[in-house]
Specification:
By secondary structure, this protein is mainly α. Helices cover 55% and strands 7% of the residues. The chain is built from 11 helices and 6 strands.
């Protein structure tokens, strides 16, 4: 009997998978780990990753089931990065007091996403938050275009960190967020040589197969900039419905594919 991916439940498990995942889901989680790794290293993340992070700032904006987690993540980041607090009581996090989520679940997500270290009910900045503090203090005032881009970048990184934490804890599978990553993974995997700029309709159907038609429409509208006039990932959607990718995204896909291929080469050598 064919075994299906433990994450998406749609595609069959890849022959080389160590975690019961299809190739697209494995590549999606690889992207998540590569982005977070770049932010947690001592050196600054490369521009092709920071620019891509800005394009991913929208993936939790409409998800009601993860809103409390994302709000808690933003609150913690804001207090450390803008209010310059060195620590604060866990009970001071408003989202814990106002939402119906059990406290231990919020704590687990904050710690798993590297945003906080919690000891004796006191919140301290995690590894990722310390890096985001550095981003905040690069000399820009809050009313500048540069700072607006930095805030978009921070929201994108938070979205990626939250995705990792939710998948690892199995608290909730963030299918909309994974669908966007799957869309990028599909574009990498289907290219034998040059990665195509257009994401064809059938590829979009494959990537969005794990969410409802309404959710997929909302994601496309957000990508097109219909909500706030800022397109993400795509620079256009043509008359046939094909998504035309931005130059930033094309550069990201090429570089991420090379890292993915290097991983495969290392597996072969081992």
């Amino acid at each position: 009997m064919k075994e299906f991916c433990s994450l998406c439940g749609v595609e069959p498990v890849s022959e080389n998978s160590e975690h019961g995942l299809c190739e697209a889901c494995e590549l999606s989680l690889f992207q998540v780990n590569q982005i977070l790794k770049a932010y947690m290293e001592d050196k600054s993340p490369p521009f092709w990753i920071t620019k891509m992070a800005r394009e991913l700032d929208f993936i939790y904006e409409r998800n009601m089931r993860t809103r409390a987690y994302f709000n808690a993540a933003q609150e913690v980041t804001f207090r450390f990065s803008v209010d310059k607090e060195s620590s604060f009581p866990l009970d001071d996090i408003e989202e814990i007091n106002q939402s119906q989520l059990p406290r231990h679940k919020v704590v687990s997500i904050l710690e798993r996403s590297y945003l906080a270290e919690i000891r004796d009910s006191v919140v301290y900045p995690g590894v990722l938050t310390k890096k985001l503090q550095d981003i905040r203090w690069e000399g820009y005032t809050l009313d500048t275009t540069q700072m607006a881009l930095k805030l978009q970048e921070i929201k994108g990184v938070l979205s990626i960190a939250l995705t990792k934490a939710l998948v690892e804890t199995k608290e909730f599978i963030p299918r909309a967020a994974l669908s966007i990553l799957n869309l990028l993974s599909q574009q990498i995997l289907e290219a034998e040589e040059e990665i195509r700029r257009e994401i064809k309709i059938h590829r979009q159907y494959i990537a969005f197969a794990r969410i409802t038609q309404r959710q997929s429409n909302l994601l496309r509208w957000a990508m097109a900039g219909f909500e706030d006039s800022r397109p993400r990932i795509c620079k256009d959607i043509d008359d046939e419905g094909n998504i035309i990718l931005k130059d930033i995204v094309m550069d990201y896909l090429v570089r991420m594919r090379e890292r993915w291929r290097e991983r495969e080469r290392e597996r072969t050598r081992d």
